[in-house]
Amino acid sequence: MSVTLDLADPASRPRPAAGALSPLGAAGPGRPSLIGLDREGLAEALREIGVPEKQLRMRVGQLWHWLYVRGVSDFDRMANVAKDLRTRLADAYSIARPEMVDEQISVDGTRKWLFRFDAKGAGRPVEIETVYIPEEGRGTLCVSSQVGCTLTCTFCHTGTQRLVRNLTPDEILGQVLVARDRLGDFPDAATPAGAIVPSEGRLVTNVVMMGMGEPLYNFDNVKQALAVASDGEGVSLSKRRITLSTSGVVPMIPKTGAEMNVMLAISLHAVTDELRDVLVPINKKYPLDELLAACRAYPGLSNARRITFEYVMLKGVNDSLADARALVKLLRGIPAKINLIPFNPWPGSPYECSDWDQIERFADLVNEAGYASPIRTPRGRDIFAACGQLKSESERMKKTDRQALEAGV
Ligand code: SAH
Ligand code: SF4
Prior knowledge:
Layout: E1 2-5, H1 39-48, H2 56-69, H3 83-92, E2 99-106, E3 111-117, E4 126-135, E5 138-142, E6 146-147, E7 165-166, H4 169-183, E8 206-209, H5 219-229, E9 242-246, H6 253-260, E10 263-267, H7 273-279, H8 288-296, E11 307-313, H9 321-330, E12 336-342, H10 356-368, H11 399-407
Parallel strand pairs: 5-8, 8-9, 9-10, 10-11, 11-12
Antiparallel strand pairs: 1-2, 2-3, 3-4, 4-5, 6-7
Helix pairs in contact: 1-2, 4-5, 9-10
């Protein structure tokens, strides 16, 4: 059972989080968003509306604080910014949140939001999903990087939807900001401007790039959004609490380590090229030996900083004990965690989830070999928010645009 809120009906809207002026507000049409710009980008935006050179540093600092520490989505809330400058900012730019069209809350507390973004070349507005998973002592936000996906992993619902377009940095970061609005994770309006806001007690403690899309096919935008999310003077999420999951875009893995330096997760799912070619077809381009070599070379690996290998449990397909033994052998020498994911079915999916006993036997074998191998409890299944169930009905991107995007890698 799930609770579906009709956001068109004000009576059914959840109370806006303290400090969030209008979490449901749509981004202003036409005006460029300041969300997701780095400090240089913000300085340039201020320069363009005539802020004098000698004030830029101070003004950027103020904006950064209001946007990312306080989470305001209206220039008028920026109390220590002169009224005249607030007006000029509002005339030229937007800091509004993305439009949220639906919020669902699972019986287990998992939340799923449906966001609508401008077409930006896709022909019509696009929609994506973001999921929040509360757990004891932490809360993980599962963020999308693309509308749809170019890849076609056979067990993934998103994989049945063609790529529509990449999300921009403001749209990626916007998912984090709205989640924090809705959860009341920003300080309230009574907190004095400039006050340091403690990070304990937060509800969004971790971000995983495991929503819709392949983040390494949208490298620059994901990098820019994560740089802002991990900035110590803003949202301040430690890079150790940000995990990027890839299906195995091997050429981009060293660049991810060098330029983003976030935690890495690999959607492995099979231990032979023969099977992985079917389940995760990008394997035909970048086979297992190349993928694992890139993992071995990922910077900063240690027992405290491991790569997560995701392994979806598909009945009779990849769940034998021989597979478990081969998995252990394959990962030898890599500081690794193995995440066993019970397969989440979706309408028309061609697989079944492994039997629970078999998942446990598989996990025991992997544990005995010295790997932590938590079985990921499916969360939010009732609201269709579990891994691989995300899919929106956005229009396809034109084939030529898609090819141009893919040719980039
Ligand atoms: N495109 C990236 C990130 C998004 S998918 C990637 O593939 O890594 C997030 C995780 O959910 C991946 O490990 C993916 O393989 C897994 N997943 C996809 N569909 C699933 C399903 N139906 N059941 C369980 N896990 C699934
Ligand atoms: Fe795309 Fe990841 Fe789904 Fe594969 S598992 S289709 S890469 S979103």
